[in-house]
């Protein structure tokens, strides 16, 4: 046993040397790779990058609201006469006209931090078949989904309990107000769900739903309240703003203007925005408001979304009083299939 142990022990220095060599080679290789990445990264190009940054053109968004110029809006027939690479223009927003002060919430619990829990006793809060406004796009049970477990999930904040849903109390909070969802079909689904939650206590002759249009309105007469949905999938002006005919080969937007849509949402008391899914569908053509002759630039979806969100944020920062208007933004949502 001693001989066998000594024989094994004699190999340890050799193994250690080999392992040390592998570690040293790995470190040298990684340092070389990091150095190569560092040299290729445009953000690390020193004076050259700084010089480029100093020449960036900043565009003041939503200028039609600050000037006498009548904005020219896009529609589904709009086309680009020419397309060039993205020039690097950026959106300048909220610098000088942000309204100071934020509404301080009296709530001691963050209702946005929580988890979904299964609740088979108190959920669902409404049945799909009982809502006359349910969209076929959202009617899972009607179109053959056999398991109904998905209807029993309830949101549970970490630090408190939400009050039991009370339809009448909700209408009292909405009395004399406009609640508007703005965005794409995912937000439209949230709007329809809220309408289905609320409509049951309103007599049929005291409620109405306007025909499908860019702005669709559910109205409860006795509460003088509306729950509305505005189709604006990119939030900024675009050629995809028709709620029916928006599947186009070429997506064009005005990255510096929300004015077409803000004229419809500006007087709402509660705004719920979303914009996410459409930016994942390939490059976008940019038609800047000051550009003439149909000249466009092309940019990837993520970059285009950043520009659009700048124009949206400029409107929120300059046009909303947090003491009078509540603004929410839904960052991400499952697709219709999930």
From TrEMBL:
TM region positions: 12-29
Sorted UniProt keywords: Membrane, Signal-anchor, Transmembrane, Transmembrane helix
Topology with respect to the bilayer: Single-pass membrane protein
Stated family: Belongs to the PC-esterase family. TBL subfamily.
Residues annotated as domain Trichome birefringence-like C-terminal: 163-337
Domain Trichome birefringence-like N-terminal: 107-161
Entry protein name: Trichome birefringence-like N-terminal domain-containing protein
GO CC field: Golgi apparatus; membrane
Originating organism: Salix udensis
Subcellular location: Membrane
InterPro entries reported for this sequence: TBL (IPR029962), TBL_C (IPR026057), TBL_N (IPR025846)
A GO term, aspect molecular function: O-acetyltransferase activity
């Amino acid at each position: 046993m001693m001989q066998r142990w000594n024989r094994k022990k004699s190999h340890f220095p050799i193994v250690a040397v080999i392992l040390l060599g592998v570690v040293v080679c790995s470190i040298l290789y990684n340092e070389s790779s990091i150095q190569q990445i560092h040299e290729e990264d445009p953000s690390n190009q020193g004076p050259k990058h700084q010089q480029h940054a100093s020449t960036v053109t900043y565009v003041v968004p939503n200028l039609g609201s600050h000037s006498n110029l009548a904005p020219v809006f896009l529609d589904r027939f709009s086309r680009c006469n020419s397309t060039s690479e993205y020039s690097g223009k950026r959106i300048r927003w909220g610098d000088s006209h942000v309204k100071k002060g934020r509404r301080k919430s009296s709530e001691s619990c963050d209702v946005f931090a929580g988890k979904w829990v299964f609740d088979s006793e108190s959920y669902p809060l409404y049945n799909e078949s009982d809502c006359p406004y349910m969209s076929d796009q959202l009617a899972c049970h009607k179109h053959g989904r056999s398991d109904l477990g998905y209807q029993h999930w309830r949101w549970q904040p970490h630090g408190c309990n939400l009050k039991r849903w009370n339809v009448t109390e909700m209408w009292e909070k909405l009395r004399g107000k406009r609640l508007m969802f703005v965005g794409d079909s995912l937000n439209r689904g949230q709007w329809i769900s809220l309408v289905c939650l609320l409509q049951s206590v309103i007599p049929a002759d005291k409620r109405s739903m306007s025909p499908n249009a860019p702005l669709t309105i559910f109205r409860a007469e006795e509460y003088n309240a509306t729950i509305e949905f505005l189709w604006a999938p990119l939030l900024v002006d675009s050629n995809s703003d028709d709620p029916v005919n928006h599947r186009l080969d070429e997506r064009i937007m005005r990255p510096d203007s929300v004015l077409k849509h803000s004229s419809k949402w500006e007087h709402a008391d509660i705004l719920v925005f979303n914009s996410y899914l459409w930016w994942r569908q390939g490059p976008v053509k940019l038609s800047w408001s000051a550009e003439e002759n149909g000249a466009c630039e092309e940019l990837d979806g993520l970059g285009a979304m950043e520009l659009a969100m700048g124009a949206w944020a400029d409107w929120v920062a300059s046009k909303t009083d947090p003491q009078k208007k509540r603004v929410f933004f839904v960052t991400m949502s499952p697709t219709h299939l999930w």
